Amino acid sequence: MKKCSTCQKVSKQLEAAGYDINWIDIRQTPPQAELIRAAVDQVWPDVKKLFNSSGQAYRQSGLKDKIPDMSKEDIVTTLAEDGMLIKRPFLSDGDHVSVGSREQALAQWLDQ
Asked: Tell me: the pLDDT tens digits for 47-88?
């Protein structure tokens, strides 16, 4: 999301590392289920890392209390249906996925 300050910061870091950025507005086009599934598999069982827990959609849906009882597929379906629930930035090169702006999440992209 081009207006997201965190996304802009990460974009600058990735561009400095030689990446070309292709922006996709996840509000209108959430990532495909297979990419979300890859992200879920990477962080399982700590899937809360994938959710935009400060967002209005997250708070209104009561996900904080629901996530512990959700299956992997329930989580994938939920995130695929509403891009606003996904922590940004959601990065993918088609093979690898990472979510968020923390150093650990960006390491695979910046340590090459």
From this structure: 999 999 999 999 999 999 999 999 999 999 999 999 999 998
Rg (CA), the chain: 14
- Has residue 9 been placed in a domain? no
CA distance 49 to 99: 8
- Identify whether the C-beta of residue 89 lies closer than 8 Å to the C-beta of residue 6: yes
pTM comes to: 0.85
Q: Tell me whether residue 91 is in a domain.
A: yes
Q: Is residue 4 part of a domain?
A: no
Provide the CATH number for the domain around residue 88. 3.40.30.10
pLDDT at 112 over 80: no
CA-CA-CA-CA dihedral for 109, 89, 43, 106, to nearest 10: 20
Q: State how many domains the chain has.
A: 1
Contact 73, 55 (CB under 8 A): no
